[in-house]
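Known limitations

Structure tokens in this collection are predictions and should be treated as such. Users comparing against experimental data should check residue numbering before alignment. To illustrate the layout, the record for Crp/Fnr family transcriptional regulator is reproduced below. The input appears on top and the generated tokens appear beneath it.
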Amino acid sequence: MPQFDQSTVENTLLKLLSVDGFARLSGEMERVDLPLRHVLVASDVPTTHVCFLERGLGSMVVSSTDEEVVEIGHIGPEGASGMHVVLAVETTPTRTFMQVAGSGIMVPMETFQRALADDPEMKDFFLRYVHTTVLQLAHSALANARYNMHERLARWILMCHDRLEGNNLAITHEFLALMLGVRRSGVTNELHVLEGVHAIRSTRGNVRILDREKLIEIAGGCYGVPEREYEKVLGLPHCAR
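Generated tokens:
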């Protein structure tokens, strides 16, 4: 198994760990490719690995008993999947899968849990990260309840942009509609609104960001608080932009 150098990993959480904390995990780390729609956390199934993303975008979704599905959060190189185990929960009804293909570092759940038990400082660190994911979920609920569709769409695009390299998002209109819980026609209309103010350019299967500051202006109060909290409690920028 290859050795991992903390200075060269591309996941922010792993970079932020203490040297001792990183060493507790590194012996069992495995770098893996994460193809499109690869499931990181399955609903109601014991999670076997924590995945620290280095590239790509993970989507956390929740489903109702009548199969309604909506996205509640994103994971990119700033985060990791399987964090419910930090709260001593073995399974979760939510699902996490790759929305944009990438790569990551897998750590067996037993190794991760043992490290948390042996290192209280490390456990506190991951609890702070869980706090930021809960806040992201809360602001998704706020956006869905109180903000217009074009504001929510601007927020969603910004959250993707935070976690992906470059200015192109390989996302279809159908997938956007599923993630935002609206009809495809509604997403298409709102994309045209954002195009009209030259914030994005939308083509089949791709959204290109032209003016990030314009998107932040459009999103208004539904974007920014979770991102600032991440920087506050973890001590590094949420993204490199």
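For this record: The radius of gyration is 18 Å. The chain has a mean pLDDT of 92. Please report discrepancies through the issue tracker.
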